[in-house]
Write a structure and sequence with these properties.
Blueprint: E1 2-3, E2 10-11, H1 30-41, E3 52-55, E4 62-65, H2 77-85, H3 107-110, H4 114-124, E5 140-144, E6 161-165, H5 166-174
Antiparallel strand pairs: 1-2, 3-4, 5-6
Amino acid sequence: MKICPQCNITFYQKTNQKLSRHRQQKYCSNECKLNALKEYNKGKIAHNNNQQERTCIWCGKKDMVSPSYSKKPYCSRNCMTNHYKSGIMKGENHWNWQGGITEKESRDVLYEGYKEFRRKVFQRDDYKCKYCGNNKSGQIVVHHIIELSKNKELATDISNGITLCVDCHFFVHYGYYKDKTDKKQLKLF
């Protein structure tokens, strides 16, 4: 019989335990053991604890953290998200800003009525590739028969557009299919 040093209850140690004197059961339960350790360690700092103070750049909260976390500018992921959403990290303030190097605007802006042109070409060709008949959403595109670099006035002319799937469109521009499948030669024009 033993007496628990935490709650002063007498308890029996399990008889099948053949442990050294240091590993023998000292407390009646794990709850008593954890409570005793909590009281014992209250206010103690680990011998290798070199914590540093960190201030969150978004909310200003100060806390003590290990050296590996002291260089991180935010106290939580929520602070980081709120900081990014505030607009502080947009445009010239963004860390990867390169002076507005984008030169090409989208076709929707460059050519008035380009979206309408695409919609009419798709409707005319029944939303299918004119060569292989593919009609999967996201796989069909409008191809300009006469390239825009040669004649920009035909950019929104419906007779200059044709519906092709991505593979056939690649073939028209480069002469072979991406997946190297054996299809017939493309004779559209």
